[in-house]
Amino acid sequence: MTNKRRLTTDDLYKLIFVSDPQISPDGKQLAYVRTMIDEKTKEYRSNIWVVPTDGSSEPRPFTSGPKRDTCPRWSPDGTKLAFVSDRTEDNQIWIMETRGGEALQFTKMRRGASNPVWSPDGKKICFTAPVDPEDTPEELEKPLDEKAKEAEKKKKLEEPTLVTRLKMKSDAAMGLIGSRRTHLFVKEVDQDQPVKQITSGDFDHFSPSWSPDGKCIAFCANRQENADHVPWIIDIFRVASDGGEPQKLTDSKGPSFSPVWTPDGKFIVYAGHKREYGAATLNKIWKVPSEGGDSILLTSSFDRSVGDSMAGDSHFGSSENGPVISPDGNQVYFLSSDSGNTSLFSVSIEGGNVALILGGNRQIFGFTLDNSGQTFAIAVSHPTRVGDVGVFHLDSDTETMLTSENKALLDEVYLSEPEQIQFKSSDGQDRLGWIMKPVGYQEDKKYPTILEIHGGPASMYGWNFFFEFQILASNGYAVIYTNPRGSDGFGQEFLHAVIGDYGGMDYDDLMTWVDCALSQGIIDQDNLGVTGGSYGGFMTNWIVGHTDRFKAAVTQRSISNWISFHGVSDIGYTFTETQILGNPWTDFDLLWKHSPLAYVENVTTPLLIIHAEKDQRCPIEQGEQFYVALKKLNKQTEMARFPESNHELSRSGKPVLRVQRLNQILRWFDSHLERSKEDYAPPLT
Fold first, then answer.
1. CA atoms of 12 and 656, how far apart (whole Å)
2. 647 is an active site residue
3. Among this protein's residues, is 566 annotated catalytic?
4. Is residue 678 predicted with pLDDT exceeding 80?
């Protein structure tokens, strides 16, 4: 195409997101979730699509309709797909023959159902469902009718809510969580039998995994008496598939998650850690005897964390990261983020050296394995590839991408591909940074530049598609980013280095990177902007209170005051203590020392504050405090408040609000940084 154009914020509506690649048992088909934004309603629509792994035909829709179908799971014989759908308003599990036909509703749970897991013989499905204390066993399979829903709504509006738990709200719920708990249920597939609840108690249970003989189910839960005080304790349990008293298999020292049985049923492999470095401990691969015993560490020599920690704004829905065990029981496969990439790795079931199976400068953000142990389904992203699914054949070491969901849009627009640059931190460590040149870049010019800072801080920037970065580049800005101390992907010592030092060497790493980026000769040092969200919002607030080198800043879903954050965030009462190492009543001065609000009088940089009204992770009062202080001091600031949105606004928020957020960022930088019109306005050929 010769008449390409610049990317616009409205192009977000045209993006197609893929997730949850699921290989069929025989390795011949791949099911995945395809999410798009409805042209008329501007709402997300998700359907299950299927594509043959030999590439003999194009992907085809397996489900359809103006709702969200997610979580496809093949039956063991490959003849059926179970999936979750909100086509009856609440999420319920449906089953459909893979040869076609009508989907049959499998669950009719009172408050919805999710996470279907087939039994090895394909005769049962275990799933999770929320239960209120007042729900009786007879009511569990009686969905609330409109009258009952109105009665519950009326009660919430006209009666006080009695709070008794320490953890009283969550960002996902956009408010109070009440006393509802998630339990495991088992239901026969082909018989009209009532569901069997196999867990109970005032605890949440998740991640069910069937034993090879179908007699037991492993799952994750925090069943401590003081669970809200120690939310990082997640244990692996096993319970009979027809119910009974759960047996705890792990030692309650840290988080344990994603259990999977070895084929012989003797062990359960899982990911997690024992908090050797507190909250900033790398996740490892472990195995524990399924009958009970000590856990065995399999990845002791691997100085990276299990899982995909790459930051991004162009994925929708979850995907499996592992661990996955080979059919012969000899290998454990998992994803891990390393130095800007997320790749597929393996380790022997006996432990030892970790091997790279599939890598490259990209993000592999989901995978599954077929029954032969030779064909992987993978989901992949790259700076110029939003996300697609494909297969990797282990025996032939060949890879084939099976989709190109965003080809039409990407063929139409110019994109910027980042350049990776090595630099030294101030204390001599080798570091990596990236520069995205503005679209239409000319070598004889210098450009206004935006420093982007990721959240977490245990997250990682790297080689994936980032819509916000591309929007900035298309509007005449260079974009620079790196991974400061506290980021994932660079080892245990680096991850832990930020603990108790927020605003210390992490700030130093960012400023050192800016200096390095300036030395590359493309950046206008008098036209620098900075932005970031969550931890990146904290750091943006910190930066404007400690330097005047930036001409404009946008802080998003930020932290400004650790003293109040402790009590208002859904994780504040633990996060503050594990990250800053203090609490308001014994360590007031320490928390204030690390609070950007303490330095608000130093701010000279014009600051736009972006915050979601229902953010429970970094509640909006954090942005309000900074805004009011800046206004009181007659500093240049504005606040953009986004309704009916939580901490996930930039990633999975309402599409129209996501576009408006990007427009606000552009408006602020455009009004404070200098650009030549020819750098962003005319079409490019």
1. 9
2. yes
3. no
4. no
